Amino acid sequence: MNATQRTYQTLLDQIVSRRIPAGEVLEERRLADELEVSRTPLRAAMNRLLGEGMLERLSNGSIVVRSFGVTDLLELLQIRSLLESEAAAMATGRIPAEPLEGLRARLQALLDAKTPDEKSDWEVDNALHDLVAAYCGNRNLATMITAARRQVRMCDVERLPQRQVQAREEHLAIVEALLSGESSRARQAMAAHLENVRRSYVNSLGYLNHGA
């Protein structure tokens, strides 16, 4: 990994984790000193993040961390549904059985436990969606899915703890569909999951008039 790649990854991690909060101006000199890099790899990393929509340039030329709100969240979830449902169909039969069976066992254990476990839920969620993107057979599609998922995490909206059990069931349905080898079933399971997430936010935020 070269200096530009390391700088990009460090900045991305800080933005997604909100250690660099939305709206904060990125000052090249300060960041270069903090990251112990020259301005050349820093500018290259920032330009990449601008292209990915994680940063935005203001009219005065300043570069800030982009803010994502409720409307962004709902639109991104719709985009994810379109992209990831097709990716799930394309990944069917490509993903090795071992990681899917491992996810099935973890999800069943979480469902049996019936207790909150945000860390494990996030790990399973990431692992499943990463597998679908990685094995869909289309690198550009995988890149778009990864970008959309990152932006969803950036949205300034509270999580929905009441969806915990339902999300586990939906993830398990996706895993079972992928293991079945039926691409149409995998497509439907993924689409249903992401549409349920979107509708839950629509309902919880009072955006009923914006829902499908």
What Rg do the Cα atoms give? 19 Å
The CATH superfamily of the largest domain turns out to be GntR ligand-binding domain-like
Q: Estimate percent helicity.
A: 55-70%
Low-confidence stretches: 208-212
For the secondary structure, the number of strands is 2
* Global geometry: globular
Main sheet properties:
2 strands, antiparallel
Strand order of the largest sheet: 1-2
Q: Could you say what the CATH topology of the largest domain is called?
A: Four Helix Bundle (Hemerythrin (Met), subunit A)
CATH C-level category of the largest domain? Mainly Alpha
CATH architecture call of the largest domain: Up-down Bundle
Strand content bin: under 5%
**Order of helices and strands, N to C?**
HHHEEHHHHHH
* Strand-pairing-aware structural class: mainly alpha
Domain tally: 2
What is the terminal separation in angstroms? 44 Å
What is the average per-residue confidence, as pLDDT, rounded to a whole number? 91
- Count the DSSP helices: 9
Pfam family, one: GntR
GO molecular function: DNA binding; DNA-binding transcription factor activity
Keywords: DNA-binding, Transcription, Transcription regulation
Organism: Achromobacter insolitus
